[in-house]
Design goal:
Shape: elongated
Number of strands: 8
Order of helices and strands: HHHHEHHEEEEEHHEEH
Largest sheet: 6 strands, antiparallel
C-alpha cells in the first residue's frame, strides 16, 4: 500500500515561526546585554590607558624641551607653559588654569594627548555647528540619552566645556573646570592633586548613552593619572560641590542610585561590570 507523505500546513509553519520569534525576543536582549557588559570594562580600561599615556606624554615632551634649554624638569601638568611644549612660541600661558583645561590641554596638545576636536561634520552632532560648548550640548544631540535623576540633579550641563574625541577610537571625552576650590591654588603644586575631571562616553553616539553603562567620570591628577568617580579620593575633592557619592553607597549590589559612581566599582573589579 502506497504511503502518502504529509507536509506542514501554512498555519503550522506560522505558529512555529511565532514561537521561535517569541523565544528570540526573550533571549536575545539578555545575550546582547551580557555581551555589552563583557566589553564595557575592557573598553573603559583602554580609554583610561590612552588618556593617561597622552597626559603623561605632555609632561615628558615639555620636560624634554625644558632640559634642552638648560632648565629643570617639571612634575605636574599645571606647571607647564605653552612655550614648554612649543619652543620658540614665547607664549607663557599655562596649559591648565583655574578656569579649566579644555582648549589648552586637549585642543592645543591634541597630537600629544591623542585627542581631537569634534567638528561640525561629526555624526555625533548631526552636522550642527560645533565645537559645542558643553557635555550638555553633546548629550542633547544624542538620541535616547538616559542620565536618570542624578543627571538633572547635578546639573552637569551648566558647567561643561568643549568635547573631544580620542583618535582612532569611538570614545568621546568632555573635560571640566579645574580644582573644586579655586582659592586653593597650592593644589596646583602637588603631583597627586586632582585638578579637574573628565566625562568619558566610551562608544560616542551609540546607545545606551547611560551613566554607569557607557558614560563614566574620572578626576584628573596633576601627574596625568586618572581617579574614578566613586572613590574616597574623588569624593573628598568633589563630594560637596558635585554630590557624587561613594560607590559603596550609590553602586552596591543591584542597587544603583548614581551610575557615575559605578566607575570606581568597575575599576576595583578589574575592569569588569558585575551589575
Amino acid at each position: 500500500m502506497k504511503k502518502t507523505l504529509r507536509g506542514f500546513t501554512l498555519v503550522e509553519l506560522l505558529i512555529t515561526m511565532a514561537i521561535v520569534g517569541a523565544v528570540a525576543a526573550l533571549t536575545i536582549p539578555g545575550l546582547v546585554s551580557g555581551t555589552n557588559k563583557a566589553s564595557t570594562g575592557p573598553e573603559l580600561a583602554r580609554v583610561v590607558e590612552r588618556l593617561e599615556v597622552g597626559l603623561r606624554n605632555v609632561i615628558d615632551t615639555a620636560n624634554k624641551n625644558i632640559v634642552e634649554e638648560g632648565g629643570e624638569p617639571l612634575e605636574t601638568l599645571a606647571a607647564i607653559q605653552t612655550k614648554d611644549l612649543f619652543p620658540g612660541s614665547g607664549d607663557d600661558t599655562y596649559i591648565i588654569g583655574i578656569s579649566g583645561f579644555d582648549d589648552n590641554l586637549f585642543g592645543n596638545t591634541g597630537n600629544l594627548t591623542g585627542t581631537e576636536y569634534i567638528d561640525k561634520d561629526d555624526p555625533s552632532f548631526g552636522g550642527d555647528a560645533v565645537p559645542a560648548a558643553g557635555f550638555g550640548n553633546y548629550i542633547n544631540e544624542l538620541k535616547g540619552y538616559d542620565g536618570g535623576e542624578s543627571y538633572s540633579k547635578n546639573k552637569i550641563i551648566d558647567n561643561a566645556t568643549i568635547p573631544f574625541r580620542i583618535k582612532k577610537m569611538n570614545a568621546i571625552v568632555v573635560p571640566y573646570i579645574g580644582i573644586a576650590d579655586n582659592s586653593d591654588t597650592k593644589k596646583y603644586d602637588k603631583p597627586d592633586s586632582i585638578i579637574g575631571y573628565v566625562y568619558v562616553d566610551i562608544n560616542g553616539e551609540k546607545k545606551p548613552n547611560k551613566e554607569g553603562h557607557d558614560i563614566f567620570l574620572f578626576g584628573v591628577r596633576n601627574n596625568g593619572s586618572l581617579v574614578p568617580a566613586g572613590t574616597e579620593e574623588f569624593e573628598k575633592e568633589y563630594g560637596d560641590s558635585l554630590s557624587f557619592p561613594l560607590a559603596k553607597d550609590a553602586c552596591s549590589g543591584d542597587t544603583i542610585t548614581n551610575g557615575l559612581s559605578c566607575t570606581a566599582r568597575i575599576a576595583a573589579n578589574g575592569w569588569k561590570v558585575d551589575y
